[in-house]
Amino acid sequence: MANHSTTDVLICGAGAAGLTLAIELARRGVAFRLLEKMSRPFPGSRGKGIQPRTQEIFEDLGILDRAVAAGGLYPRQRTYRDDGSYLDSDMAEDAEPTPAEPYHLPLMVPQFVTERIMRERLNELGHRVEFGCELLGFEQDGSGVIARFAGPNGEETLHARYLVGADGGRSFVRKTLGVDFPGKTLGVHALVADVVLTGLAPDAWHQFNDGDMERMVAICSLAGTDLFQLQAPIPPDAQADLSADGLTALIAGRTGRADIIVRSVSWASDYQMNARLAERYRVGRVFLVGDAAHVHPPTGGQGLNTSVQDAYNLGWKLAASLRGAREDLLDSYEVERRPVAEAMLGLSTRLLDAQKQGGMRRGREVRQLDIGYPDSPLAKELPERKGGLRAGDRAPDAPIRGAAGQPSRLFQLFQGPHWTLLVHEADGALIEARPGLHVHHIGAQSEVVDAWEHIRDAYALAPGECVLIRPDGYVGAILNADQTAELEVYLARMGVARLEEESK
After folding, report:
1. DSSP letter (8 states) at residue 47
2. Share of the chain above pLDDT 90, in %
3. Residue 431 has what pLDDT?
4. Distance separating alpha carbons of residues 200 and 218, to the nearest angstrom
5. Contact 186, 274 (CB under 8 A)
């Protein structure tokens, strides 16, 4: 007989998206289970680029320092000419950090390392991944989802308030929902492998035959490991030989160099590049995140980052809904995130086309710092406000000084699962802090001092204005500080009730 249990959220898939969602729910005290079909963690480096916006999210989740220590910056590209000479160049446009944007260059952290760090963080929060658990089927009604899965202890039936499919491009959850996954195959068959090799220095991303899709091969040292990642397009109908000898032969055939020898293969895969986007991200009480909702070519290093941000967007909304927020809050997940994925698919495909022509320099567009939700139903602001920061924008960082003299940053005030209200040069309490809402006053005689005027530059708040920052670091509302009634209505919609209301 099957076992029966209950939880608030069932997450299927323990890749980067599923782990991000689990961390978000764990730090909010939400009951969940995180199931992974594979019997052990994913071993490959595939999504190795951590973009600046995702670095900001990792800071909030408490894992950025660990990720930086475990990885490193991307090496320079070394493009070889036919005569064996080469030219070194920067992969990304050079950009200096600013007070508003503290992270400016992509990190290289192999995906298996990133996910290991995430699992460690999840363990700290008192939860773990359940490996070897395969979802067999599910049904839903108005109260929740009944799911069946098989695990080490046999078959189990689980009742969850919500189900989230974070189960990859071949998503069982998406297919069971009957959600269409339109798009196209891009006509590129490629291999990727993590290998130990000799013959190349680890200080460069080695590019051979750049722009020649029949002879191209790229070999990049994986920061923080003794591995190299090998990437190469292969003929559409070719059977890839992913053994050490086979990969050595491929490199020799394309480079003319017999000194580059693959000693061992840690992980390898061959795949067809696709660009596909789920028609819906939500069906009732079931949601899709990450590759279950969008797949794309790897150019530009966008995939894992977009997946992490899907989960980061959905996590606080699920928690708020379980706490009593209005149901339409959950509808905003698809409204906000699906257009982002659609734009990301277009960007990745354009970068792939550029790569086919030889050379691919990544600019600001890949950093994901300009992603925002200005058309979101959650965005509320003063109708007369002109220019400057808008509701739906990413909330900038800024160095600040506390009233006691200690230096700090806005991101340190934002860190955690709460909303943050910044009140600029206004007297009185105006609105009470409460569970889920931190209130900070900014001014020369207030707790937060804009000592270097970076808040002024980034936020352009007039005296008496306040800005409400969502738990995911985006601006929810910009209002006058005396608009307490409007602010209370907004917060109640998000499930952030006043203390006397919570006690009823």
Report:
1. S
2. 78
3. 86
4. 12
5. yes
Query: Residues 63-87: pLDDT tens digits?
Result: 999 999 999 998 999 999 988 899 9
175-212 pLDDT, tens digit each: 999 999 999 887 788 999 999 999 999 999 999 998 78
- What is the per-residue burial (b if ≥16 Cβ within 10 Å, else e) of 22-50? bbbbbbbebebbbbbbeeeebebbbbbbb
Structure tokens at 135: 């979802």
Q: Rounded to whole angstroms, what are the CA distances from 10 to 129, 146, 163, 175, 499? A: 12, 10, 5, 17, 30
Paired tokens of 252:
């020799």
Give the pLDDT confidence of 391-422 residue by residue, as tens digits.
Answer: 999 999 999 999 999 999 999 999 999 999 99
Between CA 196 and CA 42 the distance in angstroms is 18
Among 457, 459, 382, 369, which residue's Cα sits nearest to residue 422?
A: 459
In whole angstroms, what is the distance from residue 380 CA to residue 211 CA?
47
Find tokens 């006691």 and name the residue.
404
CA 406 vs CA 101, 142, 251, 439: distances in Å: 21, 51, 55, 18
DSSP string, 83-149: TS-EEEE-SB------SS----S-EE--HHHHHHHHHHHHHHTT---EET-EEEEEEEETTEEEEEE
Q: Quick one: which of 45, 15, 344, 299 has its CA closest to 170?
A: 15
